Amino acid sequence: MRKIRREINAYIEEEVQRRLQDLHRVISEGCSTSADMMKDNEKLHNGTIQRKLKYERMVSRSLGANPDDLKDPIKISIPRYVLCGQGKDAHFEFEVKITVLDETWTVFRRYSRFREMHKTLKLKYAELAALEFPPKKLFGNKDERVIAERRSHLEKYLRDFFSVMLQSATSPLHINKVGLTLSKHTICEFSPFFKKGVFDYSSHGTG
User: Fold this and answer.
1) Mean pLDDT, the chain, as a whole number?
2) If you classify domain 74-194 with CATH, what class do you get?
3) Listed residue (192, 191, 190, 187) closest to 206, CA to CA
4) What span, in angstroms and rounded, lies between the C-alpha atoms of 75 and 63?
5) What does pTM read for this prediction?
6) pLDDT digit string (tens) for 172-201?
7) Residue 116 in contact with residue 140, Cβ under 8 Å?
8) Domain boundaries, the chain
């Protein structure tokens, strides 16, 4: 009887030891699995950070070095004007320089093209009607002093024009609509006035 009890106790002890070993093995494997999961999670996290940094670098390049580019995404100026044609066909054209983020291009436009654009777009966007547009002059259209003054007024008009369009809720150029997709293509689609090669009547390529 005692022998049977000893055998039973030995069996129980052996079974307990076996189960403890199994338990330790499971815990050990669990720790290894957890460690692997932690490594995978860390790799995923690092990958996400790298992609984010890559995106930020791409955005930084698209916006240029100046962080204020989003506040002023369109820069426009009229650096000069040129006399084109001869005799009755002689007229002045204004060089319009447009920079959108990292894209820059120029077009040459007669005063009449500015006026046409203003008349057309103010019917579509009421906010533009409030802008002061340089009036047409019956005399002195070829006087350089008058042309120099007109250049200055047209430049101010274009800057005010884009300022209004970037803030207008109905405008396709509204900054919240286009954001980082604002581009030369966006501007040219908005109005052919800004598209190079349109009104191709002069030696400068546009009229």
Assistant:
1) 77
2) alpha beta
3) 192
4) 13
5) 0.63
6) 998 777 665 789 999 999 999 999 987 655
7) no
8) 74-194
Tokens encoding 47: 């990958």
Instruction: Kindly report the three-state secondary structure assignment for every residue of the chain.
Output: CHHHHHHHHHHHHHHHHHHHHHHHHHHHHHHHHHHHHHHHHHHHHHHHHHHHHHHHHHHHHHHCCCHHHHCCCEEEEEEEEEEECCHHHCEEEEEEEEEECCEEEEEEEEHHHHHHHHHHHHHHCHHHHHCCCCCCCCCCCCCHHHHHHHHHHHHHHHHHHHHHHHHCCCCCCCHHHHHHHCCHHHHHHHCHHHCCCCCCCCCCCCC
Question: Hunting for tokens 């390049």 — which residue is that?
Answer: 61
Residue indicated by tokens 């103010």: 122
Query: Which tokens hold the place of 42?
Result: 């860390």
Instruction: Let me know the angle formed at the C-alpha of 143 by 162 and 151, rounded to the nearest 5 degrees.
Output: 15
- pLDDT tens column, 57-114: 444 344 444 545 556 789 999 999 999 988 888 899 999 999 998 899 999 999 999 9
